[in-house]
Specification:
CATH architecture of the largest domain in chain A: 2-Layer Sandwich
Order of helices and strands of chain A: HEEEHHHHEEHHHHHEHEEHHEEHHHHHEH
Helix content of chain A: 40-55%
Number of strands of chain B: 16
Structural class of chain B: alpha/beta
Oligomer: heterodimer
Number of helices of chain B: 16
Radius of gyration of chain B: 26 Å
Largest sheet of chain A: 6 strands, mixed
Number of domains of chain A: 2
CATH class of the largest domain in chain A: Alpha Beta
Distance between the termini of chain B: 80 Å
């Protein structure tokens, strides 16, 4: 009997999987406050926990030259508190913060004289800035924002900035929902950008850590600068060092006022919550944020590329090869075709690049291709990369990547490959449903970037429709030599002495 | 009693006020988080894990979860890279890898790749220091086929020559690349300082040890360690427990046991506390990677609960002292860490460190040492203690929010011979930890005057010479050339 019932379950499964998706869609409630702030709530009552996610439709792509890195700096500053959180005496502190600003500006002006600046005056102004920063410390209640959440059991408290958006996330025991409502609304209603220039120093360390001391980080920054000549996707999210050195608190506040408006934000809440209660608390706390016009989108359009571009960095590190082709953004009808290409070319041990470069030719230890970089909101890139095996060159790997791209252009993919891509898209969606935080992130992402959270579930319908002809057409349309950028890390001849060191 | 009563009254009033607020105006919203009152947290229902020992000796932990049509399995096998022969370092890793990529006599690795990926399923095997692992993740309709693949590769790996060669190419390439990222250099060289260059807990493959590995070595390694009595598996997902036990039992039928003493106990660590200063010079870097510390301990140490709280106060996330003082207040680093590390059966490492621009290297080192001295000098404040404990207690529910976490944790305890209720017991002990306990634990286990300090960076640009901390030993990270 038991085996019979097991068999029955197995036979019914594809329908059951579809049922799971429909169930999830049914458990979603959405509402928009009068100020334009939209909430998406997904009830999941297995465990008494909740994941809260704020997705702001602003990223590095919204920066202009001179203030690169600002979207990310603001994200750091959003943990510094408000006029009531993080301070012992805001009246006095506000004045101290203004004195820091003045000291910073005086120093900046002197430094901008370049060679004509007076070293003694610079030294004096530096001391003045340090003194003012020291003064302001007396009013601080350090890291109160984080402590208030952590004390109540917050986990995964963090934030992130990409080209397209800025996100703030946390998980809490579900009885602490109101705490999140209060803290999150406060920081976007009344942020105080205290310790601004110290946090800016932290961001400079982050730049050294992620970009300047990492071989692939170094290459990627050069690569994007070459791939884009007009659109801001070519500027680094972390910002140029000189912009980080000169950015002011005033500029950060201005950026905040322009982009952190309710109509430009989406909140997703997933977990053990009652939608009616969420709505009531949202109105009470987030309803206080005044409505403002939505900021304009980026106007610059990357012009059509008319010839291959190439960047080679000579580096202490081992070789690495990157190839990128310009392609449309996520809302283009070819997006699902690129998803299928990602699967067939770059996902898993049966993908074409892995099979050819790693398994058969043995010239690579890792080879793949994917879409989504630098962003998806505006036209981005389809990237291929390979990590050459010891003793093999970038050129050798590049040639092998081109062979696989040519195959995609010259012949249709097999029915099995296409079916596998579709099966894996279905399974991958089901696996994503397992995490509250992952779901919150996906719902907010699809709502902001595509205009409807339901696209999270509809992406399957789009990939189901992809044909072998579509893949060939897309490969022929976009994977053209005049539309590509190539990037190499070439190992520099090393100075053995300095690299290896001398004993004692 | 009085306080309890008054807070109940206060809570009641606040509820009334809150409703009033909704009905009237938004202006009256509480904006002071300290005034919030929370409803009690719904009781956590911790599901009961089923335990079964099969007739062949394999141990199973099973937990049903019917929300999604998925089944997952993770297993630990009594082996590990600590059992590599000294002239064959890399053998265990390659065995773990080729078991999966090489397939079995009846199904090649490439065929397994095709079949699994067409079902969007995964089966993996691999190696840790003191354990081997296997895992499976599958839509439930495909469980029987996938499970028999997993069983087949664990029982009858073919170890074909071409996949061994492929794994060796990968390992040699990893050796060639091991000095590309500064944090990798720092981590690797620091482990060697603590456990010793030759220690099984710190050594790593070289071209010579990889080149020496043969197919016979893989076959012998597998024969010695892989048998049903060496496996503990956790399974969770959309199945009926008794059916799943039958499916697993039949998949692993006929597997011969291995000797219970094949995996000898991991060797002890004989650590001598010393003060050393070590340097990996990298003139191309503008940021220093600093790691300092000494040997750590075991999770079964009676001081463990006090050390967990101490770790939280010293280096815990956004609110620890190191984050506050080295990052927020001084702006010296993006990432700063500090924690007394513990393992289950061999000691962990006590590590403190950060990445800071070359010009503030010594400043950052002294800021971190100052925090270590402070934690030994005086008791943590009641406020710090309260924050650390409340945050531990209030976030405790996140140990139980997925079935996978619950059953995997019990698997880990079982594997290392810890009681299944270890976490619950620890919660009770943490509840009782006092500032005095932390001070005593810190004085026993933390030794700021006996630190081994390692810096990967450009000494020409440091704010002060590293030699101000002691005699500097330069570490040669040149990769030994392969012998033909």
């Amino acid at each position: 009997m038991r085996y019979a019932s097991l068999l029955l379950v197995v036979l019914l499964l594809p329908a059951a999987a579809a049922q799971n998706l429909a169930d999830f869609e049914k458990d979603v409630t959405e509402f928009t406050l009068d100020n334009g702030l939209k909430f998406i709530v997904l009830e999941r009552h297995d465990a008494p926990v909740v994941s809260c996610y704020t997705h702001v439709d602003v990223g590095a792509v919204d920066e202009v030259k001179g203030i690169t890195g600002l979207a990310h700096i603001f994200e750091h500053m959003a943990f510094k508190g408000t006029s009531t959180i993080g301070t012992k005496d805001y009246q006095a502190e506000a004045k101290a913060l203004e004195r820091i600003d003045a000291a910073f500006k005086a120093l900046k002006e002197e430094l901008q004289k370049g060679k004509r600046s007076d070293p003694k005056r610079v030294e004096e102004l530096r001391r003045q800035l340090a003194k003012e920063q020291q003064e302001a410390q007396q009013y601080l209640v350090h890291d109160e924002f984080e402590e208030a959440l952590k004390r109540e059991g917050a986990t995964g408290l963090n934030a992130g900035t990409s080209y397209d958006y800025t996100v703030y996330m946390v998980n809490l025991p579900s009885n602490k929902l109101e705490l999140w409502m209060l803290m999150e609304s406060e920081r976007f209603l009344d942020p105080v950008l205290r310790e601004f220039y110290k946090e800016r120093d932290v961001v400079m360390e982050e730049r050294r850590l992620r970009t300047e001391t990492q071989p692939v980080g170094r290459l990627l920054e050069e690569f994007l600068a070459v791939a884009y000549k007009a659109h801001p996707y070519g500027e680094p999210v972390i910002g140029h060092m000189s912009d980080l050195q000169t950015v002011t608190r005033e500029e950060a506040e201005e950026f905040f006022r322009k982009y952190y408006v309710p109509s430009n934000m989406i909140v997703a809440i997933v977990g053990d919550v009652q939608p009616a209660r969420v709505k009531e608390l949202a109105a009470r706390y987030f309803g206080r944020i005044p409505g403002k016009p939505e900021p304009e989108a980026v106007e610059t359009v990357e012009p059509r590329q008319i010839g291959e571009r190439r960047v080679v960095i000579s580096d202490p590190a081992q070789p690495f090869v990157l190839v990128g082709y310009h392609k449309p953004g996520i809302n283009h009808e070819d997006d699902a075709v690129f998803d299928a290409i990602t699967d067939i070319m770059g996902t898993g041990r049966t993908s074409r690049l892995y099979k050819s470069l790693v398994k058969e030719k043995r010239i690579s230890v890792e080879a793949s291709g994917f879409q989504g970089m630098p962003g998806v909101k505006y036209p981005g890139l389809f990237l291929f990369y390979s990590v050459p095996a010891r003793g093999h060159t970038n050129e050798e790997n590049l040639k092998a990547i081109y062979e696989e791209i040519d195959r995609l252009k010259n012949e249709q993919v097999t029915a099995e490959e296409l079916e596998k891509a579709k099966t894996r898209a279905r399974a991958s969606l089901i696996r994503q449903l397992d995490s509250n935080q992952g779901l919150a992130q996906q719902l907010a992402f699809f709502e902001t970037i595509t205009g409807d959270w339901r696209n999270l579930f509809r992406q399957l319908e789009r990939i189901e429709k992809v044909t072998a002809q579509d893949i060939q057409r897309v490969a022929q349309t976009y994977f053209r030599p005049d539309n590509r950028t190539v990037g190499f890390i070439e190992t520099a001849a090393t100075d053995q002495k300095s690299r290896a060191g001398v004993e004692r | 009693m009085k306080t309890v009563n008054s807070s109940v009254v206060k809570a009641g009033l606040l509820v009334l006020l809150a409703f009033g607020t909704v009905a009237s105006a938004a202006q009256q919203t509480t904006t002071d988080y300290r005034n919030l009152e929370y409803p009690p947290l719904r009781e956590i229902k911790i599901p009961e894990v089923s335990r079964v020992t099969l007739s062949n000796g394999m141990q199973l932990l099973l937990l049903e979860d019917h929300e999604l049509p998925l089944i997952r399995l993770t297993a630990r096998i009594r082996t590990g890279s600590i059992y590599d022969p000294v002239d064959r370092i890399g053998l265990a890793d390659i065995t773990g890898e080729v078991m999966r990529t090489g397939g079995t006599p009846t199904m090649s690795g490439d065929e397994i790749d095709e079949l699994l990926e067409s079902m969007a399923a995964s089966v993996e095997t691999g190696m840790g220091a003191d354990y081997g692992f296997a895992s499976l993740s599958v839509l439930k309709q495909d469980i029987s086929r996938t499970l028999s693949i997993l069983a087949d590769i664990l029982m009858n790996p073919a170890f074909p020559q071409d996949k061994i060669e492929l794994a060796k190419i990968q390992m040699r390439s990893a050796i060639a690349r091991r000095n590309d990222e500064p944090d990798q250099i720092a981590g690797r060289e620091f482990s060697k300082l603590i456990y010793g260059e030759e220690s099984v807990y710190a050594r790593h493959p070289e071209y010579a040890t990889v080149n020496a590995i043969t197919r016979d070595d893989l076959v012998a390694f597998h024969r010695k360690f892989y048998g049903p009595n060496a496996v503990i598996a956790a399974v969770w997902g959309d199945f009926q427990t008794d059916e799943m036990v039958k499916v697993i039992e039949s998949a692993f039928k006929g597997w011969k046991k291995v000797s219970d003493s094949a995996a000898t106990p991991p060797p002890k660590v004989d650590y001598r506390f010393v003060n050393t200063v070590n340097m990996v010079p990298r003139p191309d870097l503008n940021q220093s990677n600093v790691v300092m510390g000494h040997i750590g301990g075991l999770a079964k140490d009676p001081d463990y609960p006090a050390l967990v709280v101490m770790n939280q106060i010293l280096g815990g996330g956004f609110t620890g002292r190191l984050f506050k003082n080295v990052r927020s207040r001084e702006g010296l680093a993006y990432s700063v860490f500090g924690s007394y590390g513990t393992n289950y059966v061999y000691p962990g490492m006590f590590t403190v460190g950060c990445q800071t621009k070359s010009e503030s290297t010594l400043q950052a080192i002294s800021a971190m040492i100052a925090e270590l001295k402070k934690i030994r000098e005086s008791e943590v404040t009641q406020e710090e203690l309260k924050l650390a404990k409340e945050s531990f207690m209030n976030s405790f529910v996140f140990n139980f929010d997925t079935e996978g976490e619950i059953v995997s944790r019990i698997l880990t305890y079982e594997y290392y011979g810890y009681p299944a209720d270890f976490l619950m017991k620890m919660r009770d002990q943490i509840d009782k930890v006092t500032a005095k306990d932390i001070l005593r634990a810190a004085r026993t286990h933390i030794h700021p005057d006996k630190l081994q300090i390692l810096v990967v960076g450009n000494p020409d640009e440091f704010d002060k010479p590293l030699s101000t901390l002691g005699q500097v030993r330069t570490i040669d990270t040149t990769i030994p050339a392969p012998k033909q």
